[in-house]
Design a protein that fits this description.
By secondary structure, the chain is mainly alpha-helical. It has a single domain, classed as DNA sulphur modification protein DndE (Arc Repressor Mutant). A two-stranded antiparallel sheet has the order 1-2.
């Protein structure tokens, strides 16, 4: 596995800082987990764009995923399979980065996400208010 360290771009960091303020979630890894899952839930694969991971947000893969790190990795690998992409470490790592950044953008762009309850509602398809 080549996902030893998780880094984000400076624009993604700025979005995460604002998301922390809006949602009250204080840990980068928790917000990044939500972002990854949001992107993985989308039908279309993320656009392949160059992402420069130049911010000072950096965490180990284990910090990112916590006790469910292996599950997050399996989800990204499965998504590669669904998108008919190779399952090699380089592709999985690149797809993780693309999904993470797309997900951060989606969460940031959703102005209804004002607290953890709104995130939960989003995850449940708006089933709770």
């Amino acid at each position: 596995m080549s996902l030893d360290t998780v880094r984000v771009s400076q624009p993604a960091k700025e979005q995460l800082v604002r998301l922390k303020g809006r949602t009250g979630i204080q840990n980068w890894n928790v917000l990044c987990r939500w972002a990854l899952c949001k992107s993985l839930s989308e039908v279309d694969p993320p656009a392949v764009v160059p992402i420069t991971t130049d911010s000072n947000i950096e965490m180990t893969w284990r910090t990112f995923g916590g006790e469910f790190a292996d599950l997050y990795l399996a989800l990204v690998e499965h998504r590669c399979h669904l998108d008919v992409l190779p399952g090699d470490d380089e592709t999985v790592s690149e797809q993780f980065k693309l999904h993470l950044h797309r997900g951060i953008g989606y969460l940031f762009g959703d102005k209804t996400l004002g607290d953890i309850g709104a995130l939960t509602s989003m995850a449940l398809g708006g089933a709770i208010e």
